[in-house]
């Protein structure tokens, strides 16, 4: 978002957090791709390593193919390691020659394994099939390394994500009303606090309305964030009408000339009819003050819910006119591919992502950084 630091150091710091914290599980995509090319998933591998003779001047290793290829089952990994089997000569050791990467023929078996890997990472079946088909184009029958596949995958993910990587728009309208929705436990309250703090640091005046009046913990959490940021938090007695609180908050924000009014809402999906009625009523009453409000409706999603995030987007698009997404808790899952599936399926703007509890653990969504972290590349 435009309120976050623009210094290169700050950007690199967040990317490092993204790489270090995004996927803690051992089944992350990077490890899966390494194993895929190495042949660990196939159980069989064919090493085609030429033998070199130690000479005063070592010649480069030359790959030779057998004159009569032996047919192999489609499920068998075909591996080529561009490294001499024997120890390199003295000159080779002196110049620190590095072994070349293992390569594997990109065949139908590898394509199928790649599809399965991306589906397991919650990229969704349709998106995974489309991504792998694009990667396979021009590579079928050729030997590829894990690094090459990672680069190709990162490029495909970036291509999908670039159109949706948009900061939350800031309007001249005062107050700009931001309605924040999402299921309980998604990180919605914390996200509101972080955004309010960042907007305040950018010179914006912010008012928060603790509209989830049925959860005392949500109100208390917002009050803590409000104290940290120096932002007023308007509350009402537990069980009060959220729409009435939103109306009072709108009045206060208008009277004080606040730039932003952020309204928290409940997220009790087990009773969708009540929640829809509640959200509809909030919108109806604030439109008495401003017919164009809310100007933004942000849906906060928990990355650890995986494919369930897709269901949540579908539900909240019906309950509220969702204008953008914020994805939290990417540090707690190995299945961040769901964000790619969301972008591919819905095309909703992704404003920010979070990888922790600190104020600087919420940052604008950068498609290249996300793609690099997803596949385990250094930026």
Notes on the protein architecture:
- This protein has two domains: 11-163, no CATH class; 164-375, P-loop containing nucleotide triphosphate hydrolases (Rossmann fold), CATH 3.40.50.
- A hairpin with a 7-residue loop joins strand 11 (350-354) and strand 12.
- It has helices spanning 8-21, 29-38, 90-94, 108-120, 125-136, 146-161, 188-201, 216-229, 242-256, 272-286, 308-319, 338-346, 367-375; strands at 45-46, 77-81, 102-105, 143-145, 176-181, 206-209, 233-234, 260-264, 296-302, 324-328, 350-354, 362-364.
- Helices cover 42% and strands 13% of the residues.
- An eight-stranded mixed β-sheet has the order 7-6-8-5-9-10-11-12, sandwiched between helices. Strands 1-2-3-4 form a four-stranded mixed β-sheet.
- The two termini are 20 Å apart.
- With 379 residues, the chain is of the alpha/beta class.
- Residues 1-8, 23-27, 40-85 and 90-95 have low confidence and may be disordered.
């Amino acid at each position: 978002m435009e309120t976050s630091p623009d210094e290169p150091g700050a950007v690199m710091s967040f990317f490092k957090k993204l790489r270090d914290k995004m996927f803690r599980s051992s089944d992350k995509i990077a490890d899966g791709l390494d194993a895929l090319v190495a042949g660990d998933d196939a159980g069989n591998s064919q090493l085609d390593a030429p033998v070199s003779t130690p000479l005063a001047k070592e010649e480069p290793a030359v790959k030779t193919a057998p004159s009569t290829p032996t047919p192999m089952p489609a499920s068998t990994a075909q591996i080529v390691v561009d490294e001499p089997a024997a120890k390199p000569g003295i000159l080779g050791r002196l110049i620190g020659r590095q072994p070349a990467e293992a390569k594997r023929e990109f065949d139908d078996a590898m394509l199928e394994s790649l599809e399965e890997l991306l589906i397991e990472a919650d990229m969704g079946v349709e998106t995974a099939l489309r991504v792998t088909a694009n990667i396979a184009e021009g590579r079928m029958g050729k030997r590829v390394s894990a690094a090459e596949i990672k680069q190709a995958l990162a490029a495909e993910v970036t291509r999908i994500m670039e159109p949706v990587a948009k900061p939350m728009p800031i309007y001249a309208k005062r107050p700009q009303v931001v309605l924040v929705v999402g299921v309980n436990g998604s990180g919605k309250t914390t996200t509101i606090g972080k955004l309010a703090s960042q907007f305040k640091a950018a010179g914006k005046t912010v008012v928060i309305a603790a509209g989830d009046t049925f959860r005392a913990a949500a109100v208390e959490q917002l009050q803590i964030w409000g104290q940290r940021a120096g932002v007023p938090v308007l509350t009402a007695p537990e069980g009060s009408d959220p729409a009435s609180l939103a109306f009072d908050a709108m009045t206060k924000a208008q009277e004080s000339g606040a730039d932003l009014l952020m309204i928290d809402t409940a997220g009790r999906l087990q009773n969708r009819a009540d929640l829809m009625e509640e959200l509809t009523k909030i919108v109806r009453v604030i439109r008495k003050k401003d017919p164009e409000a809310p100007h933004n409706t942000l849906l906060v999603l928990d990355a650890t819910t995986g494919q369930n995030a897709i269901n949540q987007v579908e539900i909240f698009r019906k309950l509220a006119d969702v204008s953008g997404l914020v994805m939290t808790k990417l540090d707690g899952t190995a299945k961040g591919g769901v964000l790619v599936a969301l972008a591919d399926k819905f095309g909703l703007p992704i404003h920010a992502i979070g990888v922790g509890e600190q104020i600087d653990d919420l940052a604008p969504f950068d498609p290249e950084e996300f793609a690099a972290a997803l596949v385990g590349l250094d930026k």
